[in-house]
Amino acid sequence: MTMHRYPDRGDTLDANSAPGHQLILDFAHQPSLAADDFIVGEGNSLAYERVASFPHWPEPLTVLFGEEKSGKSHLARVFTELSDAIVAPPGALADLARSGGTRPVVIEDVDRAPIAEDALFHLLNQSMRDNRPLLLTARAPIQHWPYSTEDVRSRARLAVALELRQTDDIQLSQMFVKLFGDRQVQVDAKTIAYLVARMERSSAEVVALCELIDRLAMQRGTAITRKIAAEALEIRRHARDETASSSEDTDDE
């Protein structure tokens, strides 16, 4: 069986398939989380500089917060590689606090993961007492973390808390280039500019559009064009309208 690839793509077609019934294999791709691939802009430069300055931290606690897909996990991975940190699952916090030590620790999604409040509280205390570097990520700012008492939030407020935001067209464009590059797809700069000018402005929307556009192009067996980009924008707009309409109906009830 002869296999063909479209140029600059990982899509593979069975040459013996009948036209219109070609088999497209969407190979899984792994986004690069290397330090050199982190896109630094006005909205995340302070967070990046904080991570990059390790081990020269005058205080041990750092909180990175921001919307979904804003780069928190990417920076946490950079910090892990830089510091040889322990990436702690929710159930390990109590043991880490009891065992002590100064090896850095990373805890992701502290406002969403099933974390025992007392265990996190004791680890925060241990970090400050023993000067143990601790990096936390969250979507919400500290005052909105969903803990039943003020203990964790009061300790976390002693951290250097830095928000990650996507702030400008250049940064959004660079994110498109990176994500398409992770998929081994080349996209014309004019098509990316077309997307940035018309999209909902968020990191999560860049990720969603990239995935949708790549899938549409694969289904059609073509390169990514402005027409496909326009179709993806319309699909995403329609999905948001339906979500908003559904939310309004629920509120009316």
The value of Rg in angstroms is 22 Å
* Secondary-structure content class: alpha/beta
Given as residue ranges, the uncertain stretches (5+ residues, pLDDT < 50) are 1-28
Overall, the morphology is elongated
- The helix content, as a percent range, equals 40-55%
Q: How would a textbook summarize the main sheet?
A: 5 strands, parallel
The fraction of residues in strands falls at: 5-15%
Query: What's the N-to-C terminus distance?
Result: 57 Å
> What is the number of E strands?
7
Let me know the average pLDDT.
Answer: 84
Strand order of the largest sheet: 4-5-6-3-7
| H and E string | EEHEHEHEHEHEHHHH
Number of H- or I-type helical stretches: 9
Question: What would you say about this model in short?
Answer:
The chain has 253 residues and is of the alpha/beta class. 46% of the residues lie in helices and 11% in strands.
Structure report:
The chain is α/β, with parallel strands linked by helices. The protein is built from 9 helices and 7 strands, in the order E-E-H-E-H-E-H-E-H-E-H-E-H-H-H-H. The strands form 2 sheets. A 5-stranded parallel β-sheet has the order 4-5-6-3-7. A two-stranded antiparallel ribbon has the order 1-2. The longest helix has 27 residues, at 226-252. The protein is elongated and about 60 Å long. The termini are far apart. The model is unreliable at 1-28 (pLDDT under 50).
